[in-house]
Amino acid sequence: MIARLRGTIASIHDHHLVIDVGGVGYKVFAMPATLATLRPDAPATLVIYTAVREDALDLYGFLHDQERLMFELLLTVSGIGPKSALTIISLAGIETLVSAITAGKASYLTNVSGIGKKTAEKVVLELKDKIDSLGIASAIADGDEGAIEALRVMGYSIKEAREALQSVPDTVEGEGARLREALRALGK
């Protein structure tokens, strides 16, 4: 199994990128937020999930181990495949997923990620204990949840809010400071 790729970004497309590792180009599916942070001809390291099927070997790339871990957890829910899991993480974000699952709020998942009610309930039911037992909730900071809600109230979409907050450096701490930096990013 391929677990990590380090190389040069050869090209970036709508739903995937090609990373050149030692002269071999690997097609890697990734979230839009991941694709937006990478640049062609720049070095990159991606954490990889390898999906092996009868007719294909697909690679899914992430910038952080927490993203891959949440992706793998979503795959344990029956009815959710790799592309669906990637879409759910892209639309809802890890912090939102962890918060909604640990709080048992399936309705929040349907509003944010666009998944159906039954699937959202299944995600909450099947992953709540796994997230608690693995300690993911403590490993993933949910400090931006209030800032996302504040930006949403100001009229920004959840996606815009999340992307703006992702652009804020990790060195900026505190919800108010992160919110101000996100507003500056949105104002550019």
Q: Can you put this structure into words, describing what you see?
A:
- The structure is a single chain.
- This protein has 188 residues and is an alpha+beta fold.
- The protein folds into three domains: 59 residues, Nucleic acid-binding proteins (OB fold (Dihydrolipoamide Acetyltransferase, E2P), Beta Barrel); 75 residues, DNA polymerase, domain 1 (Orthogonal Bundle); 43 residues, no CATH class.
- It has ten helices and five strands.
- A five-stranded mixed beta barrel has the order 1-2-3-5-4.
- The termini are far apart.
- 28% of the residues are buried.
- About 3% of the residues have low confidence.
Give the topology, please:
Elements: E1 4-12, E2 16-21, E3 24-30, H1 32-37, E4 43-52, E5 57-62, H2 65-75, H3 82-92, H4 94-103, H5 106-113, H6 117-134, H7 136-139, H8 145-153, H9 158-166, H10 175-187
Parallel strand pairs: 3-5
Antiparallel strand pairs: 1-2, 1-4, 2-3, 4-5
Helix pairs in contact: 2-3, 4-5, 4-6, 5-6, 8-9, 8-10, 9-10
Structure in a nutshell:
By secondary structure, this protein is an alpha+beta fold.
Q: How many H/I helices?
A: 10
N- and C-termini, Cα separation: 42 Å
Provide the structure class: alpha+beta
**Anisotropy-based shape:** globular
* Number of structural units classed as domains: 3
CATH hierarchy class name of the largest domain: Mainly Alpha
Could you give the order of the helices and strands?
EEEHEEHHHHHHHHH
Average pLDDT over all residues = 84
Reported CATH architecture of the largest domain: Orthogonal Bundle
The CATH homologous superfamily of the largest domain corresponds to 5' to 3' exonuclease, C-terminal subdomain
Q: In terms of quaternary structure, what is this? A: single chain
> How helical, in percent, are the residues?
40-55%
Q: The biggest beta sheet, please?
A: 5 strands, mixed, barrel
Integer-rounded radius of gyration: 17 Å
By CATH, the topology of the largest domain is: DNA polymerase, domain 1
Question: Per DSSP, what share of the residues sits in E-state strands of 2 or more residues?
Answer: 15-25%
Low-confidence stretches: 138-142
Total strands: the figure is: 5
Strand order of the largest sheet: 1-2-3-5-4
